[in-house]
DNA sequence: GGGAGAAAAACCTTGCCCGTATTCTTAG
DNA sequence: CTAAGAATACGGGCAAGGTTTTTCTCCC
């Protein structure tokens, strides 16, 4: 309910080892600096999400606004590898979404100090000196919700959108019960 | 002083955690 | 930058545990 996905992360496996140095020299869309990070970055033309590939063949796609966008990006990535002769049969590898980051808004402005107590100090972290948002970790879900005094919220850690929606809905019910 | 055994110290391997990098939003 | 999440991997550092080596005690 009224949550907007702002970032989706997915991961997959090509099933074969990749020579990142060769890939970086052969393909202009690939950036690789092993001294800074072991993964190689692939920025496809006209594609928003970023693909990070590793020597092992595992890869992650970050920055998608939806799972459709992530899957589309993956498709183009596989095509690129196939065209480059790196991949033979791209059918047998998997890909799945790992995390959704969403933004939402609560009806009224929040008093975070009171909210921390209301939601339970054992489930919340609020240190305005360090970070302006209240971190809420419900015990019945792996989802984490950041609540700001403006009423804006960030829901993260969900494996799927329903999980995020449920956690947000649950938070709203908790808030109604507190009034 | 030398041999046996135990205790201590030195050494080395393993494992785990952290930082490194990426995305994206929120807001002091 | 601070904080959160998730996947991914690699080097470094520290701790712990295990093994080897050195030292020391006891007694003949």
From TrEMBL:
Q: Name one GO molecular function term.
A: DNA-binding transcription factor activity
Briefly state the protein's biological role: General factor that plays a role in the activation of archaeal genes transcribed by RNA polymerase. Binds specifically to the TATA box promoter element which lies close to the position of transcription initiation.
Biological process terms from the Gene Ontology for this record are: DNA-templated transcription initiation
Official protein name in the record: TATA-box-binding protein
Which keywords label this protein? DNA-binding, Repeat, Transcription, Transcription regulation
Q: Which NCBIfam families match?
A: PRK00394.1-2
Q: What domain of life does the UniProt record list for this protein's source?
A: Archaea
InterPro entries on file: TBP, TBP_dom_sf
Q: Whose protein is this, by species?
A: Halogeometricum limi
What family name appears in the similarity comment? Answer: Belongs to the TBP family.
| sequence repeat boundaries on the chain | 5-81
Give the transmembrane region(s): none
Q: What Pfam families has UniProt attached to this entry?
A: TBP
